């Protein structure tokens, strides 16, 4: 099974980091978030990846093409350029990197990868969010539901405290952290899809989260796998700091 990863957006809300690299290449714990996302899948035996690049796709290409040299000790003969590696990189992954266009929307990026994805069930997610979701259980749930797509539903991380007021409307009567009860569950990525979902994408201007997903809802073909564990996206500098702190405490999304 392949895992397809959206990695082509501009990342404008993280412009402090993304002026020189795409958001999935911003590092957490010394490695790009993209690596962390792939690691999540690899822990469940999925090691065949399709990266849907766009903005600064060259940075992704360069990182992966030079991954072995970045990850191992080596000896180089400066006269001949011959390089001998002293270890094999721990990650035995197969990664296809596609340039799906600078201005292409998420649905369009997926459609451009149709031939590479093939005719089998595939995983789909974003290159900027990590989670300890059980991918094996997610896939089993998807197969049991027999729908065209399954989305992982998560509780958004609380950012602001919720205030309760007395009858006068001016006195604070209670304070608590925001919970999923306040905003409900949200799209956490980590989809499992049948290839037929790509037929719901019209063209490059199609946003996956709009027309295709709404159409799946209308068709009653979108299941939801509820995940109550760790989930965090990286949209802002603050989010990156949250992920760095979580990594320092043991990175709950990495099991080995």
Architecture, CATH level 2? Alpha-Beta Complex
Distance between the termini: 21 Å
Secondary-structure-derived class: alpha/beta
From the spread of the alpha carbons, the general shape counts as globular
State the CATH topology. Answer: Spore Coat Polysaccharide Biosynthesis Protein SpsA, Chain A
Q: Report the radius of gyration as a whole number of Å.
A: 20 Å
CATH superfamily: Spore Coat Polysaccharide Biosynthesis Protein SpsA, Chain A
Order of helices and strands: EHEEHEHHEEEHHEEHEEEHEEHEEH
The CATH class is identified as Alpha Beta
- Mean model confidence by pLDDT: 88
What is the number of helical segments per DSSP (H or I, 4+ residues)?
10
The largest sheet, given as strand count, sense and whether it forms a barrel, is: 8 strands, mixed
Determine the strand fraction and express it as a percent band: 25-35%
Helix content: 25-40%
Q: How many β-strand runs?
A: 16
């Amino acid at each position: 099974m392949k895992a397809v990863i959206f990695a082509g957006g501009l990342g404008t809300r993280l412009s402090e980091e993304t002026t020189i690299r795409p958001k999935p290449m911003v590092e957490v714990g010394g490695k790009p978030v993209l690596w962390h996302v792939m690691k999540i899948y690899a822990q469940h035996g999925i090691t065949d990846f399709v990266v849907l690049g766009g903005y600064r796709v060259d940075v992704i290409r360069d990182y992966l093409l030079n991954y072995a040299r970045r990850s191992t000790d080596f000896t180089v003969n400066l006269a001949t350029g011959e390089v001998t590696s002293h270890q094999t990189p721990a990650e035995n992954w197969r990664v296809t990197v596609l340039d799906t266009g600078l201005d292409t929307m998420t649905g369009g990026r997926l459609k451009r990868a149709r031939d590479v994805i093939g005719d089998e069930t595939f995983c789909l997610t974003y290159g900027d969010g990590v989670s300890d979701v059980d991918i094996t259980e997610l896939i089993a749930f998807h197969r049991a539901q027999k729908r065209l797509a399954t989305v992982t539903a998560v509780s958004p991380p609380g950012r602001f405290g919720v205030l309760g007021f007395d009858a006068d409307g001016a006195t604070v009567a209670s304070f608590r952290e925001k919970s999923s009860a306040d905003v409900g569950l949200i799209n956490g990525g980590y989809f499992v899809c049948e290839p037929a979902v790509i037929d719901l994408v019209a063209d490059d201007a199609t946003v996956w989260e709009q027309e295709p997903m709404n159409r799946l809802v209308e068709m009653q073909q979108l299941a939801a796998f509820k995940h109550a564990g760790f989930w965090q996206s990286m949209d802002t500098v603050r989010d990156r700091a949250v992920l760095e702190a979580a990594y320092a405490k043991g990175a709950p999304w990495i099991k080995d």
